Amino acid sequence: MSQGPVGTSDVVVVGGGAAGLSLAYRLVETGVATVTVVEPPDGPARPAERTWCYWDQGDDDFGEAVTATWPLLRVHGPDGSPLTVDPAPSRYRMVRSSAFERLVHARLARAPGGRLLRATADTVRDVPGGAEVRCTAPDGRTLTLRSRHVFDSRPLRALPPARTQLLQHFRGWFVRTRGDRFDPAVADLMDFRVPQPRHGLAFGYVLPLAPDRALVEYTEFSRASLTTEAYEAALGHYAREVLRLGEFGVETAEQGVIPMTDARFPRRAGAAVFRIGTAGGATRPATGYTFAAVQRHSRAIAAALQRGRVTVPAPHGRRALAMDAVLLRALDTGRIDGPEFFTGLFRRTPAQRLLRFLDGATSLREEWGIGLRTPVGPMLRTALEVPFLPRRTHPAPGTGESHP
C-alpha cells in the first residue's frame, strides 16, 4: 500500500531524541520555519526513557521538563577525599526524555507550523528544490514528505575513522532507600572510589532526587562496554560498599553507551540534508556531554535559517576539538591517570570557568591557564604526536543518549 506526497514543510526533522526535538522546539518557538518531526511509532523502534543532564544559568526554556536541579557539585578523589564546588550562577539540571517529549510535542501541537508524524523514516534524499523523506506509517502505508531542508538525527550505522575512540558506557539504578541517605543539594559528578579498570577509568555518579531517592550510576571510559551482569555487580559494590546505602530498592534502571571519538563527523549528507546530534558531531569527545551542545547548535541552526543560509555551523569549535583529541589520546595511552586528572581539574580550576571549559566556551587565555594545571609533559608529548596519527575505522557502538 502506498501513497504520494502527503505533506510539505520548510523543515523535516528525522528522529525525536534530544537533538531532533530541541531543533524543532527552537524553530517553531522563533517562527523561523514550519516543521514536521518524524518519530518512530510506539514499539521496539522507540528508545527507552533516557536521562539528560546539563548546567544552565537562571530560567531556561525547558524548566517545566526539569526533574531536579543541584546548586552544588562534588567529586571524590581516588583517595576518597571529597571536593565540593559551587558553580553559581550555574546549576546542574536533569531532564527525563519523557517529560521533554511531552513539552516539545505540546509546543508543536500549539504552533501553526508544527507537526508530529509517527512513522519509520526509510530513505532521505535530495530532490529538486529541497529534500524528500519516505516513511512507513504504522498501518503499512508509504508516506512521502517534501521540504526545503532535512535535519537527520538518527544514529550512524558506522562511525567515521578516528585516531582515538573510547566509549562512555554506564548503567544506572533509580533507587529508594529505607532511610535518608542523600543530600538533594549536591550532585556527585565523579566518584573515583570504585575499582579502576586495567584500561581507561571508572567512576560513580549520584544525582539525588530526594533524601531517600537518587539516580546511582556506574560509568566507565574505556574501549569496550560491559555485560549487564558486570554493570550490576559494579553498581551493587558501589551502592553497598562505597555509598553504604543500607537497605534499598531499585525502582528502574537505565543503560547506555556514548562514543568518545576524535572522528570528523560530516554535517552534510546532501545538498539539503544535514546531520544533527551525535550523528552530526554534537557529543563532546572528551566528556560525552551532548545536551548543552545540542541547545547551542539548535539556536545556531535557527539563526542560520533566519539569515537564509544553507550551511550548518559546527557544534564545537576547532580549538575545543583539538584539545579533546589530545586528552582522549592521553587517556587511551595511559600517559595520564584519569581519576587524578579530572580530580585535579576540579581542585585547581574555579568551578564556573571549568564548566565553561567543558562546554567549549572559554577563551584561549583561560584554556592556557587550565592547561598549565594539567600534567604538562605527557600532554605536550601527546599534542605533538596526535597530528601524525592515522585515522582508522573502529567498531560502532550501540548509541544511547543519556545524562550528558
Could you walk me through the main structural features you see in this protein, from its secondary elements to its overall organization?
It contains 9 helices and 17 strands. The protein is of the alpha/beta class and 404 residues long. The chain has a domain of 154 residues: FAD/NAD(P)-binding domain (3-Layer(bba) Sandwich), CATH 3.50.50. Strands 1, 2, 8, 9, 10, 11 and 17 form a 7-stranded mixed sheet that branches. A 7-stranded mixed sheet has the order 6-5-13-14-15-12-16, with helices on both faces. α1 runs parallel beside α2 and α5 packs across α9. The protein is globular and about 60 Å long. It starts with a strand and ends in a 19-residue tail after the last helix.
What layout of secondary structure does this protein have?
Blueprint: E1 2-14, H1 18-30, E2 35-39, E3 51-57, E4 66-70, E5 72-76, E6 82-85, E7 90-96, H2 97-110, E8 114-118, E9 120-127, E10 130-136, E11 142-152, E12 165-177, E13 186-191, E14 201-210, E15 213-222, H3 228-242, E16 248-261, E17 273-275, H4 291-306, H5 318-333, H6 338-348, H7 351-358, H8 364-371, H9 376-385
Parallel strand pairs: 1-2, 1-11, 2-8, 5-13, 11-17
Antiparallel strand pairs: 3-7, 4-7, 5-6, 9-10, 10-11, 12-15, 12-16, 13-14, 14-15
Determine the number of helices (DSSP H or I, runs of at least 4 residues): 9
Query: Percent helix among the residues?
Result: 25-40%
Largest sheet: 7 strands, mixed
Q: CATH class of one domain, anyone? A: Alpha Beta
Provide a brief overview of the structure:
The chain has helices at residues 18-30, 97-110, 228-242, 291-306, 318-333, 338-348, 351-358, 364-371, 376-385; strands spanning 2-14, 35-39, 51-57, 66-70, 72-76, 82-85, 90-96, 114-118, 120-127, 130-136, 142-152, 165-177, 186-191, 201-210, 213-222, 248-261, 273-275.
